[in-house]
Design a protein that fits this description.
alpha+beta, 15 helices, 36% helix
């Protein structure tokens, strides 16, 4: 049976320029044409960071090394694509390791264990690799298949889902493989999710694949590169350990897997697999480049016994920042733009975005470069044994906003904070009007509050603002952009407020008294007070529109 060589087989769907239909390319071809490829098309968004980390980045970094400093990075970036000498090195590297890139190689199948088997020879359906398929405890609500009807994966599909499993696989019980000393009763328990499932993944994105690869290459980390998984032989036994360098972390073998292929009338298909326990990260290293960080001080509730202890400063504990379901990436800009955080700060951005800040500070990357930030996450349920949701977002990110002293930095943070405050103002209005009609406010975790509707309406407006700030020319343009943002935001807030007013009865005009816990009547909260409070909040959140309206009113009076 053919080995399906990932280097030459056309298994990646690459989009070139503005073309609608992708072309099929192999790994070598993708690297040779990296400056022309604008997107690698995948079936599920979370396959992209798996492909990037498990294959594309490690090959490039292991073959070419990392830039020693920012100027070397800038020189590579200015090339626009791999040089002829670099392509020769990449080709030589792929030739040297060609035997490790055969998907069905009889001895060293890519990212698998060749002779992996159980004591009784059991296998499972290929749906075990597919996050959206029903298998075991993972039964998506609208799955089109059952576990008894596994998908017939083509080799390209199987390769992508194989990489995906190493990064995002669910936790809990895994099949026990022969040669795994930790097997009990044919099972291995206590398996965590794949390493990316424990992060809020942040990937800087450029104009093409070449630029994206460089934007995701850390500078000056020669001392902690390590080696990728295909440079060593991996068997069924596994261990809990720390990552031994960046390439080890990127190509982490979180599972022991074997794809079982067969020849069908439609060609080679993978319908059966074996997925067993794999290596476990003892902790996410603080040099993990694809996540932002949350800083926690000493554990809550810890008692301080001396005055000296009460005044001492303990280093903050860093942990990966997870993405919130239903929350657009721009609503987390305070974390993405936390580029100069100290030990007491709540957030710190990813190493790669901080790297762009340094390049921008030295003028090595243009402030008008169309940088984008793409985020990925997985929501697990039932002891992390099932996939409940896949998180994905992509937004423009002005390069200048990454510098804490830049006007654009403050403008972006101000606009995102204004959006949140406008949503709160609408929620307060809704709560006041419901109290005036004798009802309780909408609970924060139930139903749809009007603030969420506003944030949904503001989403395209915010992304347009971020795109505009990427091409900023002068301070006057920034002022006009901020004013335009506030004008549109005010209009949308009033639009949602009108819908809130329309949903309450006429009785709210006078309000309705309620009883306090002691039995006395509380003062009624009529419509006029609720609306006045809303406009007060609106004017405080959007000061430029308030000033504009006051100026217009003064001009009208002078004209009269």
């Amino acid at each position: 049976m053919p080995e399906f060589d990932l280097v030459t087989a056309e298994w990646l769907d690459a989009r070139f320029g503005d073309a609608q239909a992708p072309e099929h390319v192999g790994l070598a071809d993708a690297l040779h044409r990296a400056s022309e490829i604008t997107e690698i098309v995948v079936d599920l968004p979370t396959q992209w960071p798996a492909l990037l980390r498990q294959l594309l980045l490690p090959v490039v970094v292991h073959a070419l090394g990392v830039p020693a400093n920012r100027r070397e990075w800038s020189a590579r970036f200015a090339q626009g694509g791999f040089s002829a000498a670099e392509l020769d090195k990449l080709d030589d590297y792929l030739d040297e390791h060609r035997h490790r890139f055969g998907l069905f190689h009889p001895e060293t199948p890519f990212a698998q264990v060749a002779d992996l088997h159980t004591a009784k020879g059991e296998t499972k359906g290929s749906g075990l690799l597919v996050a959206a398929e029903a298998t075991g405890n993972n039964v998506p609500l609208f799955s089109a298949r059952t576990e008894g009807d596994p998908p017939q994966l083509t080799p390209p599909e199987a390769a992508l889902w194989l990489l995906h499993a190493h990064c995002w696989d669910t936790a809990a019980i895994k099949t026990g493989a022969v040669g795994d000393p930790m097997v009990k009763s044919g099972k291995t328990t206590g398996n965590p999710t794949g390493p990316l499932g424990q992060l809020g993944v942040v990937v800087p994105v450029g104009r093409n694949l070449y630029e994206t690869l460089l934007l995701n290459t850390p500078i000056g980390v020669q001392g902690r590169l390590g080696t990728p998984q295909w440079t060593r032989r991996i068997g069924p036994a596994w261990e809990s350990r720390a990552a031994q360098g960046l390439l080890d972390l990127w190509t982490w073998q979180a599972r022991r897997i074997r794809l079982i292929s067969e020849q069908t009338p439609d060609g080679i298909r993978v319908t059966r697999v074996l997925v067993a326990a794999g290596d476990r990260l003892t902790l996410t290293p603080d040099w993990e480049p694809h996540t932002a960080w949350r800083s926690d001080t000493a554990a809550k509730g810890a008692k301080k016994t001396t005055k000296k202890a009460s005044t001492s400063t303990k280093p903050a504990l860093q942990r990966p920042l997870r993405h919130t379901p239903g929350k657009a990436i721009w609503r987390g800009m305070n974390a993405l733009l936390a580029v100069e955080a100290d030990d007491t700060a709540s957030f710190h951005t990813s190493e790669l975005l901080d790297q762009v800040r340094g390049l921008s500070s030295e003028g090595l990357i243009d402030d008008q470069y169309p940088l984008r930030a793409e985020t990925f996450g997985m929501v697990y349920g039932n002891q992390s044994a099932i996939v409940e949701d896949v998180l994905h977002d992509l937004t423009p990110l002005p390069v200048a906003a990454l510098r804490a002293d830049a006007d654009v930095h403050f403008a972006v943070l101000e606009a995102t904070e204004q959006a949140e405050q406008l949503a709160q103002a609408l929620n307060h209005l809704s709560a006041d009007l419901r109290r005036a009609s004798g009802l309780d406010p909408i609970p924060w975790d139930k139903g749809q509050r009007p603030g969420e509707r506003l944030l949904y309406l503001l989403d395209p407006l915010m992304r347009r603002l971020l795109r505009g700030l990427q091409t900023l020319q002068d301070p006057e343009t920034l002022d006009r952009g901020q004013l335009a943002w506030e004008q549109h935001a005010r209009r949308l807030a009033l639009q949602v407020a009108d819908s809130v007013h329309a949903a309450v009865p006429e009785s709210v005009f006078a309000g309705r008294a309620t009883r306090k816990p002691d039995g006395t009547l509380a003062a009624a909260y009529p419509l006029g007070i609720a609306v006045k409070d809303f406009y007060r909040r609106l004017n405080r959140v959007l000061p430029r529109t308030k000033e504009e309206r006051q100026t217009a009113s003064t001009s009208d009076r002078e004209g009269d």
